[in-house]
Amino acid sequence: MPPVASHASEHKAIEGMEDKDFWRSEKVAFLALASVKGISFWTIHKIAQSGVGYKDSLKDPEKAGLGKIFKDTSFDGFEGQERLWAIGLGLARQLAASGVNVVFKNEIAFPAKLRAISDAPEWLFIQGNAENLTKKAMAIVGTRKPSLDGLFLTKIVVAALANSKMVTVSGLALGIDQIAHVESIRFGLPTIAVLGTGIFQNYPKGSEPLRHEILNSGGTIISEYLPHQSYSSENFVRRNRLQAALGDILVPAEWQIKSGTAHTVKYASKYGKLIYNVCLPGTHTLKPELEFSAKEYGAKTLELPLDIHKLLSACDGIEIEIETEKEIQSESQVNPESKSEVFTLESEPFPVDDEASASKSRQLPLL
């Protein structure tokens, strides 16, 4: 957990109940800041880790180191802050219309698997069934340009999970990732797509129909990036850690030692996940990545379909520890002085009109 610098970085709870009003205000302010030109993902990330709240940063940009940006974008002063707050509400409505929720790391609803890693995201945008993020899962990833063998191996792995209670995880990328999602839908498995861009970005181009299929089939789409944030090689590398963290087992269906998938394998090892390489009978020696990952990360290799029972046995052996509300609250230090302090949108110096109030109560799952 980052050092606590103010009320905002503490886990807000009042007499055993999460302070929802506090989080509502933080989320509007977070989305408002995310809309300002010059405030990047890493700037907001730094605010989160400093312990200074998003609302406090919006109200006192100088203290948060945002003074110049606010002046350059004409959001300084009360009127500027008021306009920016309205922009945050507007983005909240836009997310809500798409069924997207945003959850912060210290909220009870934040996925325990992601909270557990040392480089946990500070927030997560979630579209679709959030319960999938708590279930037993297999991450299936690989090259964007798979061979026929790679496609076959991906399909047989997913098919083997049919009628199981497993969820699959992949990255929506062309190649192995999309095949994993498509086959999961085919066999009735909920599938999680972890994006390397903001939730509103259409990437890779042409993937929107598949995204709709994932959601319509009870799946989930997540991203830690700001809603309209574009792609970059760095984003995809960081994205890979979330795939590794969500999967209790990682199956890199086809990959090379120097590749994006190699990062996922490394993260999976770092997080203590089971790693199973797969290959066709007699092809082990043709794939140097198998021996490499066995030595470096303790990965095991299965010849399919001969060893499929070993993969299923590993799935059966997975046990998921469910974090309770009580356990999460006990891990967070709540300032006794803050227990009577309830933040509401109406009590803040940022006016909320009747329409906005109605949206808050009836239309915004995120608020």
Summarize the structure.
The chain has 367 residues and is an alpha/beta fold. 42% of the residues lie in helices and 13% in strands.
Topology record:
Elements lengths: L12 E2 L2 E2 L1 H15 L6 H10 L3 H6 L7 H6 L4 H21 L2 E5 L7 H4 L7 E6 L8 E6 L5 H13 L6 E4 L5 H11 L4 E4 L13 H9 L3 E4 L9 H14 L2 E6 L5 H11 L3 E6 L8 H10 L2 E4 L4 H9 L8 H7 L22 H9 L5
Helix pairs in contact: 1-5, 7-8, 10-11
Total beta-strand segments: 11
Name the average pLDDT. Answer: 86
Beta fraction: 5-15%
Q: Any idea what the radius of gyration is?
A: 22 Å
Poorly predicted residue ranges: 1-11, 13-17, 324-367
**C-alpha geometry:** elongated
- Helix content range of the residues, please? 40-55%
Topology as a string of helices (H) and strands (E)? EEHHHHHEHEEHEHEHEHEHEHEHHH
Structural class: alpha/beta
Distance between the termini: 24 Å
Number of helices: 15
Which sheet architecture does the biggest sheet show?
9 strands, mixed
How are the strands of the largest sheet arranged?
Answer: 3-4-8-7-6-5-9-10-11
What does this structure look like?
The structure is a single chain. The chain has helices spanning 20-34, 41-50, 54-59, 67-72, 77-97, 112-115, 148-160, 176-186, 208-216, 233-246, 260-270, 288-297, 308-316, 325-331, 354-362; strands at 13-14, 17-18, 100-104, 123-128, 137-142, 167-170, 191-194, 220-223, 249-254, 274-279, 300-303. With 367 residues, it is an alpha/beta fold. It has a nine-stranded mixed β-sheet with strand order 3-4-8-7-6-5-9-10-11, with helices on both faces. β7 (191-194), α9 (208-216) and β8 form a beta-alpha-beta unit. The longest helix has 21 residues, at 77-97.
